[in-house]
Amino acid sequence: MATKTIASATVRAVKKRVLPSRAALVLTPTAVQKVKEIMSKEEAKGYIGLKVGVRQRGCNGLSYTLDYATTKDKLDEEVKQDGVIIIIDKKAQLTLLGTEMDYVEDKLSAEFVFNNPNIKGTCGCGESFSI
User: Fold this and answer.
1) Which of 30, 67, 77, 113 could join 3 in a cystine, given CB atoms 3.0 to 4.6 angstroms apart?
2) Taking the complete model, does pTM exceed 0.85, yes or no?
3) How distant, in Å, are the alpha carbons of 6, 17, 64, 91 from that of 39?
4) How far apart are CA 58 and CA 66, in angstroms?
5) Distance CA 26, CA 97 (A)
6) C-alpha to C-alpha distance for 30 and 17, rounded to whole angstroms
7) pLDDT by residue for the chain (131 residues), tens digit each?
């Protein structure tokens, strides 16, 4: 599958939350709005949504990736919420269960943040994590 990398993301370890049943990933209204904004610029290129993946990187082992997706692979999970589509790579599914995807802007940065109750440790910058 062809993808185009658009961003890396920050992770936060959070206390357990109760999410709606069957929700692999829940987006905040701010994240939904930002995904819509990103996709509106890229619709003509044949992308169906954004794909969340995981790769080995950083001092704590794993980090999330965010790419454009043109297709959904057989074992990928698809999350549809408020008009946006997020594809979860099969390798990232277990690390994302129960996670909230947010978009946060402040004076110094703007980024997607994954508030994940499954994380056991993160590095100082919040870019990598361990489960």
Assistant:
1) 67
2) no
3) 11, 29, 19, 24
4) 16
5) 9
6) 19
7) 455 556 546 555 555 554 454 568 999 999 999 999 989 886 658 899 999 988 875 555 677 888 999 999 999 999 999 999 999 999 888 878 888 899 998 888 888 888 877 665 554 544 544 45
